[in-house]
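Q: Fold this one first, please.
A: Sequence and structure below.
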Amino acid sequence: MAYPMQLGFQDATSPIMEELLHFHDHTLMIVFLISSLVLYIISLMLTTKLTHTSTMNAQEVETVWTILPAIILILIALPSLRILYMMDEINNPSLTVKTMGHQWYWSYEYTDYEDLSFDSYMIPTSELKPGELRLLEVDNRVVLPMEMTIRMLISSEDVLHSWAVPSLGLKTDAIPGRLNQTTLMSTRPGLYYGQCSEICGLNHSFMPIVLELVPLNYFEKWSASML
């Protein structure tokens, strides 16, 4: 999860988030190089009296500054499209969980089980135990197996919500009357926090999401205890 004064992204926990971080660094380096070049040219224009009148109508210069931006855009667009298709791809999920947004809590249903569903409310500040995080802890965590492809079906029963977990690279809108889907896979166990990322009313900031990713044998024991 994020820590105080953090400037960058959270540590990646899923393959998709790792790809997003690499793409961010790739694009940021291109932006940095372009900005440095523009700053260098501006500084030269302000500090030198030399003029090159022969370049005012040069076809070569116009060709270069037309083709070069196009090449840069292609270098950005191709990896972006690759990641976009990877995020939409769903291959034989091992588990399906349906998530419904409400004002102002989340409800979860494990559709592969006959009767495994619960609501997840934020724990009030006055009831927090030592070490728990304010505005992020819930009474019922979403327990999921790690290193397995999991499909999340996301919708809403009232207004627009958004189910987001930054460290997994997830952010999917919950829209009334529409069923959106996304996939997640964690490469390591742990607790992963998120929040509703769509302004949905008075208590929008009190809709945390907590995923508890555990090994498969622990998940089986948990699911058996919940049935």
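Q: Good. Now the second chain.
A: Here it is, same layout.
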Amino acid sequence: MATSEVKLLGSWPSPYAMRPRIALNIKSLDYEYVDEKLWEGKSQFLLQSNPVYKKIPVLIHGHLNPICESLIIVQYIDEAWSSGPSILPSDPYERAWFPAVKSIGVAKGEEAKKAAVAQVEEGLALMEEAFGNCSKEKAFFGGDEIGYLDIAFGSFLGWLRVTERFNEMKLLDQGKTPRLADWADRFTSHAAVKDVMPDTDKLAEFGKMVIAKIRAAGAAAEMH
């Protein structure tokens, strides 16, 4: 099918929505990107495209059923446009460390924050080891080019930078995770990534709004 028949519903602050955008860029595909402002409400288009979960990202390819879940979309893109560079769908080391990064921002008290930071640092140490095992001393988890694991992990780098800024700390550094720090620089400067990676200042402002809402909701719940 013509690439003009490809639409992607996403939201610019979402690391999950970034994943299929990177995959589409790796395949050099033209597509229509529909940015959802979820904090203002969900559009009718999104509700029609993903009526069960009502979440982004959603890929629409011609007249086929919409495809949901970020890594499933990445695998679909890899298989549907197999003539482009392979993204290699293999994820033995995937860890749910984005929730841990997020927990640093909403932690109440120094002890809770220390525990959240320790959890993130543990996840990064595992990724440092995973990078050595997967990359075989090459530039990316996928080898010479960005692959599935690079997309899965790299989509969270924007929020990791925001977390570092908010808490005046360095989670990715040459001292503790040298290979991962170098990989992060290569990933974010890659042609398929640099134009879809959110600006850190813009993401930080959005993050302040989200944290304020979470804390306000928590305070309101404690009053009941």
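Q: Anything worth noting on the second one?
A: The two ends are 55 Å apart (CA to CA).
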